[in-house]
Amino acid sequence: MKTRILRALLSVFVPLAAGITASLAASSALAGEVQVAVAANFTAPVQAIAADFEKDTGNKVVASFGATGQFYAQIKNGAPFEIFLAADDSTPAKLETEGATVPGSRFTYATGALALWSAKDGYVDDKGEVLKKNAFNHIAIANPKAAPYGLAGYQTLDKLGLTAELKPKVVEGQNISQTQQFVATGNAELGFVALSQIYKNGKITSGSAWIVPADLHEPIKQDAVILSKGKDNPVAKQFIEYLKGPKAAAVIKSYGYQL
Fold first, then answer.
1. Based on the number of CB atoms within 10 Å of its own CB, is 120 exposed (0-12), middle (13-18) or buried (19 or more)?
2. Is 5 annotated as belonging to a binding site?
3. Class of the CATH-defined domain 113-216
4. Is 211 annotated in some ligand binding site?
5. What's the predicted TM-score (pTM) here?
6. Mean pLDDT in order along the chain per 10 residues (259 residues)
């Protein structure tokens, strides 16, 4: 009797378990991923967006972070990136004219803001007068040839008429992340960084900062584009569409970007 009951139970549960296993395997096989080159200023936002994307779609974003100019060189040398989230609009446009992108895929995903920041509370005033006082030893700025936020920093100094006076005190970061680290570790008392690095949900997260008025530098329009290597990857198009959606927009705005 017990043997017959056991056999009956096995006849039900073994196929059921096999079906569940097969379903999970199929689900895993269907999950895809996309390789994305991301400008360093957009690190925190894209990490949050990628987590939401994976949760909502089951597909994964594999992100690499660095300077826009450096990524351009890597892409031209065959790096396996399928999407490029740049810190400017000119580099993706250049790749587009060179035939290295999927036609029609480029769009501006965010407009960035520049901030003068110090890790010390109260060090930077809300009008940037600390620059004119010139009572510091070092100011950090990203390499303007590789990082658009570095270019915006130099443009700000030019507009204020302070370039010649302050240039001897500049320490250059290879990208905006290294620039922020110079300030965070005290190697520079202050520096120009992306607002998104020090801002969340309407407030500065640490230290003190001056949000640089937009008329002191060229607009920091940040473009996204699907690269040629991503043209046959449906996850690339899916992530670009997700980046245009309301959930991603809310994350982007929370870090101080304009859409």
1. middle
2. no
3. alpha beta
4. no
5. 0.84
6. 47 45 42 96 97 98 97 98 98 98 98 98 97 98 96 98 97 96 98 97 96 97 98 98 98 96
